[in-house]
């Protein structure tokens, strides 16, 4: 079982067609065909683990509202333990990101969210649930979307609690110092450059420098950089491995980082070496960016890609 801790978001998709421009303003008019909901943010990591036939437990916060109940029910349908999903009253509604998509292209996105730091009582409730499941876990993923669940102090507490096991972090630059002591971080190049205080130049030389800087600064085992069309760079403390992109067609990058950290961590947890893990994560990213919306990749899709 892999523990997933972080910011739970509902990804809502409004699918439609555009055939005219509004007479009220120079914007397209979307005729809605379908409205779809998917687990997003850290809960999309759970979706990806489920696609890999990997057990999980989700820890985070939802509101005392209908979207929050939907999240819990959907997690249960995926056989993910949701006992660590804390329900808050109306002062913290469930975060929702709504994307309007026409002809496979995103027209606009609007967000309904609460980004203030979670209260101590919520962190204590999450920690209490964690302690019950720790003995059954093989790894932990901290999925930091910067929405208030993973505060610097809470991140440090979690990493200290999980020492001796695999701790993978999808980071936010504003919390850089708190990630010290994790097993691996998986930022994109822009995030990594900001975390390292270096220029975000997307070539192998600069990617290696950024990774080396973060590795030393945060006492990590691995740094995995995602680099869009340039693929990925893995630094293991001794050498860098540059993996070319496996993407064939790119329709939507939504949630691709969730796929990367899910596959990489699942591989490490089952005993794969880091280079094998990053190659499979790279292939998985190539699969999901070829789909529209928050997507997942199964082992069969990854192997066939």
Automatic annotation (TrEMBL):
Q: Which InterPro entries match?
A: PfkB_dom, RfaE_dom_I, Ribokinase-like
Signal peptide residues are none
What keywords is this UniProt entry annotated with? Answer: Kinase, Nucleotidyltransferase, Transferase
User: What's the source species for this entry?
Assistant: Mariprofundus micogutta
What domain of life? Bacteria
All residue ranges annotated as the Carbohydrate kinase PfkB domain in the record: 4-298
Q: Which CDD domains match?
A: RfaE_like
Q: Does the keyword Kinase apply?
A: yes
Record Pfam families:
PfkB
Q: Which Gene3D superfamilies does this one have?
A: 3.40.1190.20
The protein here is known as D-beta-D-heptose 7-phosphate kinase / D-beta-D-heptose 1-phosphate adenosyltransferase
